[in-house]
Every structure is written in C-alpha cells, then in structure tokens.
Amino acid sequence: MKLMGKHLLNKLATEGFGRDAGAIGALCAEIEAASWRDESAVRQSYPDARHDVHCVEITMGCGAKVRFAVNYQAGVVLVEEVHWMTR
Question: What pLDDT, on a 0 to 100 scale, did the predictor assign at position 16?
Fold first, then answer.
C-alpha cells in the first residue's frame, strides 16, 4: 500500500519522550508491505483495531493511537490522526 501522511507518524515518533518509536516504524513498514483489497484483509492484519468501512483506528501497545483511511481500489492508506494516549 502507498502510505500517505507518514510525516505525522514520524512526528509522533519524535515526540514519544522515550516511548517505543520502533513500534511506529514497524507500523509504517507493515502498512507499506500490505496489499489490502478489502476491509476483511485489514481486519485480519489488525483484529483488535476499531474498523469503520474505510477507516481504521489502532491503539498500539506503546500508547500511540493512529487513525487512517484506506482506499482499497487505489491501494492508498492516508494517516488522518495520530497522538499519544497519555503523557
């Protein structure tokens, strides 16, 4: 998948104040390596995420929350919102 809005994830990683920025890098790599054709493929990759048709919200173990939109036909993932759950 083509990942758009990656700069938001990079910014989140640099603002982590010692939290696991590696997990955010891994998320980027996973999304870019994916080839999701429909919502069920995303559900298989992230079963604990909150899914809403073309939007997915992931709460990561490191405390980051990431919301992204998926355009399956175009093969694009757009990062919409990222933040740390607590500081």
Answer: 64
Tokens linked to 21: 């920025």
Burial code of 14-26, b = ≥16 C-beta within 10 A, e = fewer?
eebeebebeebee
Separation in Å, CA 34 to CA 46, 53, 65, 85: 12, 18, 20, 26
The structure tokens 């640099």 sit at 14
pLDDT at 23 over 70: yes
pTM of the model: 0.85
CA distance 5 to 71: 14
